[in-house]
Records
---
Amino acid sequence: APSGAPSGAPSGAPSEAPSEAPSGKESSEEGVSNPALVHRDEVLDVWYKHMGRFAKPKTNVMCLLASPLAYESPEALVLTALLAKMVTEELNEFAYAADLAGCRYELSATRRGLDLWVGGYSHKLGKLLEVVAGAIARPALEEGVFERIKERLGKSYDNFAFAQPYQHAMFNESLCVESPRWSYPDRIQALKQTTLAHLKSFKQELLGRLKVEVLVHGNATPSEATGFGKLLVEAMASSAHSQLQGGLKGVLPLYASRPASHPRVAELPSGAAGCALRTKGQNPDDTNSGLEIVYQLGVCEGVHKSALLRLVMHLAHEPCFDDLRTKQQLGYLVFSGMASLGGDGMVLAARFIVQSEVADPVYCDGRVEAFLAWFRGSFLASMSAEDLATNKAAVREKLLEKYKNLNEESSELWDKVTSGSLEFDRRAREAAAVSLIDHAELVAFFDEFLAMDAPRRKKISVQVYGSKHPMPEGAAAEAAAEAAATAKAEAAGLAPAPQVPGSPLVLIESPPAFQRSLPLYPLRTPPKISRD
């Protein structure tokens, strides 16, 4: 991605999420206005926000060409990715000249369509957007370029086998709980069968029926923002597809019954032991094992639940790292934090990640559970009012921290637009909610969702076994692994992992079958908005 290009939440880090959306009025966060909806029709939404305190002659234009076709199958995923990469390849020379003139762009394929960012000096952005939009609508799609890009994409898919074990664990978790989610073997198979003729036909279908979302942030006017959005739609209308279907002109709107929705999140079953997916690492030379544990907390409605989770994970972050990384030395990679699952951020979760060469995932899972038991009994329960107030103030300060630059603010605003939450003042509202949390409420929240005997505990443990650690297969091996983990902890003078009798571990044999067996959390209800 181009340096400084807004791209949503940092890679590998979670984010968040309902009811009434702001209408572009004053924000309590920095004393500046929230984005306003300055244009809406059945094809195009344009959001606009002035640069605020970043007084520079620069603007960011972020666009989503949303279509349900983009991720409806592995073939569609591959074709959308190929289209974005071929357009980027075609514009390499032009992009270099634009960069010298202080303007840049990035085009990428997402699960909802094509995501385009254009940024730089305001007076030159219109020309850059026009050229890029034209290349998307009418790409050259030459055979030689197609074969080169196809080979390059295939290598990137193949190379995922050599990713870090924790990255495999995170991806495998998404295969278990997100619908739809396509595996890398599916992508590789689809890519092998793809031809240039397929791409040309798919491009016409993809661009012929769209919902276009645009955010213009920076040194521009509302009318200029609307002009940027209309320029993009008009360019798509000039594609070959607009001449088909009985002479229909222009981009057609999406069907109301088939929007470009975010992936759904499967609701895990309740239970102390939870569910586990175990796989062998794909790289035989990697001796590290990876573990990701996710505790689902359900749908995020308003800011109260997310404020409680944010405060709990803030309190747990430092002692978790100190215990698992510094004292027990399980591995260099130890992470704990909150997460928002699904593209719309509607499902909240707590996430723990450990990558270790010295301990297998069963042992690491037990150490996370032992930490949570200690955290509840010895840390959280005895926290003084003064310590709680100090930590609440730290969380509020982080939430209300001012953006460092225009791109950072643009990225967060765009996340609110594309997620569908439109909660541009969420950080300020959540900071206010943190202020109201008391000690008893915090402990009750932990006991409801995260404690071993929590009534609403929904856990999935995704384990990737490196070449140094044999993966337990079968009931006997499972029992032996648990016994070995207990013995290892006792030998190190550590508390064993807590257990709840009568709560068996659910082993996942097939992620797609497991996901299909579960109910799905609802998608976000579109908030009410008013045009300014």
---
Amino acid sequence: REREREREREMQVVSLNSTRSLNATASRTSRLGYRRLRGSRAALASDVFLPLVLRTQLSHHGNLSSSSSSSSSSSKCYSSSPSQAETQTAPTEQKELGVRVRFAPSPTGNLHVGGARTALYNYLYAEKFKNLAAETSSGGGGGASFVLRVEDTDKARSTKESEDAVLRDLKWLGLHWDEGPFRQSERGDLYKARAEELLEKNFAYKCFCTDEEITEMKEKAADEGKPPIYSGKWAHATEEECNEELAKGKTYAVRFRVPKDELVTIDDSIRGEVTWNTNTLGDFIIMRSDGSPVYNFCVAVDDADMQMTHVVRAEEHLPNTLRQVLIYNALGLKPPKFAHCSLILAPDRSKLSKRHGATSVGEFKEEGYLSEALMNYLALLGWNDGTEQEMFSKDDLIEKFSLERITKSAAIFDKQKLNWMNSQYIRQLETDALAKMLVDLWVEKGFLADAEAADTSVIMGKFVEIFQEALITLNQSIDEFDTLLDYPLSSTLESKKAKKCIEGGLFDVAKYIVDSYFISGELKELAENNPEAFKDWMKAAGKEMGKKGKDLFLPMRICMTGCMQGPDVGEQVFLVNKAESIIKSDTFVTFEERMNVLKKAVEDNN
């Protein structure tokens, strides 16, 4: 009793001296102390039971050792945030540069834009601190790590194909990891060892409840208007009672023993202080009866084992944090710093889903978006640098990114804004770089027959010159070129818009073109061998017919292209002739076929 009174006096002194370093909740509970769980057959190691904030304070003052005896005082609140005392004792550079973050996808589908943003924020944070380390030390780049961990504990839904797709999409975005990929399915021994540790320390217990019993408990709780919290049937079973069940060949799950009526607080980098009461949570399973670990247990064990300093993830994981912090503290491990990002919503503020269009990185890649544009756009879904700037290179993002600038409010995925941004990135590309991208794309889509043909580079150079400013996505290039290859003369002549042009003498121009192609052969020679001279030929034709301006150029456009608007007529004629041998399109109408269609239209008009 005398030793216990002495320990209480020591803790009171520490609490008074450390008021500034405790959060608001902890400061109201200066009587923090050791606690012991009901049903425990022996006092447990005090450094495991002690709330994290106070444990850190005591260790700083030299008042805590692994052999300390337990006290009868009960704790009411603890936090996952590091104390001021701990922060002040570490060298500034070491504290700021020793950053380890992770992205932990589940391979049960494609990489969603929400997951991609999470990966991006973790990547940017790690790269930022790598650069800081390189600037402040000769070691260079050793101040941070971006770890990739595949959370594949869901055996029924996890697939190798999905994992490969996720890794492929991360690489396409330029998010290269430093360590991994580590797979939870390959770390079973670690989880079993940690579960055994919790069993030995009485932080967990064996539960022999059947599925039917669990269902009955949930139904009873629902009937009584209570949350479906486990009743604790096996929480206080004796060793003999457990052995009796084992002798019958029954299997058991391992449940974590949740402390009663305690407050768990985290200092979230985005959301500030978040507090839960443990009474809202029943004893939860950490190992299933088939021996497989449960998600929250794996996450806590892995983050601790991999020494994660920061966990940046989506807001939907916030409820999981309570379980994970309890596991950290029970194992005597230091929780990381948490940052929970708001969700990405559709324009109607509903959850972003397939009905809103593309939602995965792979889909946007297939639709012809540039990885740099998608990265830039995703970064702005919940973060800004405090200015009006919208266009950021990867290096810009790395330099300016910070967790403090991530907003609490939900981000809205605006496809039109992404389209605009992608078009800006396409405009900024060097013409040769864009031409190569389009050649690769056209070959992949089966639109271009021969990437090495002499006319390919000629066609692509001219196409980029004409259309680069107009492209929104790379895939649009195929649609644009396909439109040039078509010849919708009949539908155009039947339209109301063409009526005035027809009345103004369109068929006079059409007859001149047909005669020049089939009788004199001048236009045929020009189209096949000297398309650059088309403008000169058109001007000479105007003089000969006594036409100029709109009375000449619009009829010429309709007769040559079948459309009332589009790129320069001469350039279209050039592309159509060059494309004949190397472009594969169902809509392709060659120049000679166009002239035959035009000839028939002239004859029908007469």
---
Amino acid sequence: FGLRALSWVCSCRRFSLAETWYTMEESDAEDELTSFLDDVDKEIITEAPPEAWYQPKAGDVLEVEVERCRSEGGEDRKLHKWTLGSPAPVTIPGLDVDRCVRTMRCGETAFLRSKKEVKAAATLRLLSLERNEDILGDGRLMRRTLREGRGWKTPKAPCEVLLRFSWQALASGDKIPETGQAAKEVAMSIKNGSCTGSADWIPGIYGLRVLTDLRVGQRCLVQLSSELLSGSPIERPPGSGPLEYDIELLQIFTFEDISLDRSEKIMKKVTREGDGYSKPVEGATVKLRIQVDGAEREISAEAASGRFCAALEEAVLSMKKHEICEVRCSDPEACRDEELAFGPGLLVVFLLELLDFEELDVFSSAENQRVEYCSRRKEVGSFFFQKSSWRQALKRYQVVTSNLGYLHSWKNEASKAQAMSLRKACHLNIAACWLKLEEWLEASKACDAVLTDEPHNVKALFRRGQSLKELKEFREAEKCFRKVLAVQADNKEATRMLVQLRQMVKSEVEQQKEMFSRMARGIADTENEATELPPGNDKPLEAETRSSLPDSNSSQLEVKDDALEEEEDDGTLTLMGISALLACAAAGYMLLRRSR
């Protein structure tokens, strides 16, 4: 607990420092902008495109068209290119061009007029911007962006990217002719902190660092120092220095694990992004185009109805309209489908396109319609449960409980009663699914949801007792089965479980007694080594300590009555607790004596 608290404090401190730094930088930028607006009037004529979010900084290479407005009439339009921070190639009295450009974005056109005594005005058009970045902060990995990308999507593991890149060796800053690799298109896989796919790609983690924040269509030059190339299979000519890569990001293919157990046995690769943000809900009618082994067909079905295999049905629920994806399934059970007749093999691959789907808004529907919808979902869940598809059944039951989570505001009493009964049945079925999957804690939580409204529900008590038994919570499990017998005295299964639990509790008590006995003997031996016995006292401390503890080998009385047996166990635990306190006190006393 102390380590967690310390970690939390440190993380808060880091966050506080980062937030302070960000606030200071943001404040400085605002002050600079306020000072600039005090000196210059700026009117934006043409807005920059939405993807052009970056504003120039020192070290960036700019190409700006400057159109000067002369007082005697006429205009002077020239194209200038320079590195920001160095003296600007154009000088306009009363107007700092370098400072004006820092407030613009690529593609923007602005009219600027000086407020100073020396009146000056000009129209600036930022045509191109080459960003220079020191990725590692020490000059070993430099990147210059020649063309900005589009959109906001960047590579995030796990994913696959399509690149066009070439490389060439440098010597004294110049390219060495007839060396390097011509431009080629390569599909690179990004996962587990690495980027693989081509032997002559930037080695190690540095290749991943270069790609991390690129966007589709972005082109850049990357210069890699010689010391980062150690261990690389790239053959360079003698005397050559760093390598320069010309990289263009063509496309990003995202991967998503759609397997219900998150085992990565069913992976979806998005080859074309869909429209909008909405996705099909369970029970909605969907229209699909599927391609298997070169054969293409269109199908119309109800989403998550059990008609097709799990790989297809789970993929459909994760897609957007007009999205195209490639599904790779390595789980034979999840891709077994009689209608689609997937070919045999360890890996099944098929293409899927969502052409259209029915828009269903379950939460906005009438109360009786919502009950009908949830009843159909429960039936589908029961269909999967009978097929022993526990996770598919579990997901259908969870859809019902999430749709019927809050019933306090329902006005139709008949629909409300049906919904509460349906929700209770699905919670019990969820608990049964979790027990089949051996997820004991989740099963206990599902039973608690039922017992909150109905404390004496026999199924919930029994299944909670089963889960607590597997969690080694024997006493709590015993209480659950006692409550079951209080409601159903002839429940043979609960009686059998109760007998098993009594034996487990006794065995646990004996083990704890033996453990505390060994602990006390060890403390007594340590004390005997550190101190001598007082004169006239011929009884060893070990014997005194042993005599103060309950005998772990003494015979247990046969008690027939359940209440007396439980009282005896409680007394044993009390003695064990007292023994533990005495042992801890003795250990503390010995440590204190030794420190003095």
